[in-house]
Amino acid sequence: MGTEKIQFHVKKLFPNARVERLDTDRVKKRGEANLILKRFAQGQIDILIGTQMLAKGFDFPNVTLVGVINADTILSLPDFRSFERGFQLLTQVAGRTGRGARGGRVIIQTFMPQAYAITYARHHDYERFYEEEKKNRAELNYPPYSSLINVIIRSRNEKGLEERCKKLATLVHADHADERGIEVIGPAPLPFYKLRNYYRWHVMIKGVDHVRMRAVTQAIIASVSRAKDSYLAVDVDPISIL
Predict the structure, then answer these.
(1) How confident is the model at residue 176, as a pLDDT?
(2) Cα distances (angstroms) measured from residue 93 to each of 50, 58, 185
(3) Average pLDDT of 146-167?
(4) H/E/C letters for each residue in the chain?
(5) Which of 9, 79, 133, 171 is the most exposed place for a label (fewest CB within 10 A)?
(6) For residue 235, which phi and psi values (nearest 5 degrees)?
């Protein structure tokens, strides 16, 4: 799957093209990525396939076409910033083409062509994207209209972690159900549930009353810290909740 499969099909479609791949699986040694980019800049590679690392920071005047495969992946992530990241990535990757005299094209593969992150990225209209995103954040009371605390609980014991988090959910919602100005979301498994051999759940506290938010966070910390095989991370105003 992913870039390796795309490379396989591209080679079948364009058998005479010089095709190279740039991702973390392909690049194992220090300096190897720079070598591939240098060859691409010198015209020794016709088609370069890669992950998000290709989206920004490169200036190749000879690039006349950029394709984004399955742009919906980033837009569908369970994170309130997913459209912001999608818009940013699409505008950045579009900027890799058309830098020379011949101009360029960008083709985006999507099942959601009317999604505002895509339509505004298509026209480089960051002001209208900002207004739309601001309106949606306000309706759902997400930052910057509230604060957010993400408490991540991880353990190597999957069953024990799940049981502990379900008990924690009952405790937190019972103790803070009547709290005004805050919303407790979860506990629930994180989208990237297993990472570096740890299973991960999280609880999010959203609101404008920082004193009450702090009290809920302290209650969660006190409950989880009693378990010897669990570890906590508290992320205030997280950049990502994945």
Answers:
(1) 60
(2) 11, 10, 34
(3) 86
(4) CCHHHHHHHHHHHCCCCCEEEECCCCCCCCCHHHHHHHHHHCCCCCEEEECHHHCCCCCCCCCCEEEECCCHHHHCCCCCCHHHHHHHHHHHHHCCCCCCCCCCEEEECCCCCCCHHHHHHHCCCHHHHHHHHHHHHHHHCCCCCCEEEEEEEEECCHHHHHHHHHHHHHHHHHHHCCCCCEEEEEEEEEEEEEECCEEEEEEEEEECCHHHHHHHHHHHHHHHCCCCCEEEEEEECCCCCC
(5) 9
(6) -115, 110
Q: Quick: pLDDT tens for 214-230.
A: 888 888 788 776 667 77
The torsion angles phi and psi of 26, rounded to 5 degrees, stand at -75, -40
- pLDDT band per the 50, 70, 90 thresholds, residue 99: low
- Phi, then psi, of 25 in degrees rounded to 5: -75, -35
Residue 179: pLDDT above 70? no
Categorize the per-residue pLDDT at 174 as very low, low, confident or very high, splitting at 50, 70 and 90. Answer: low
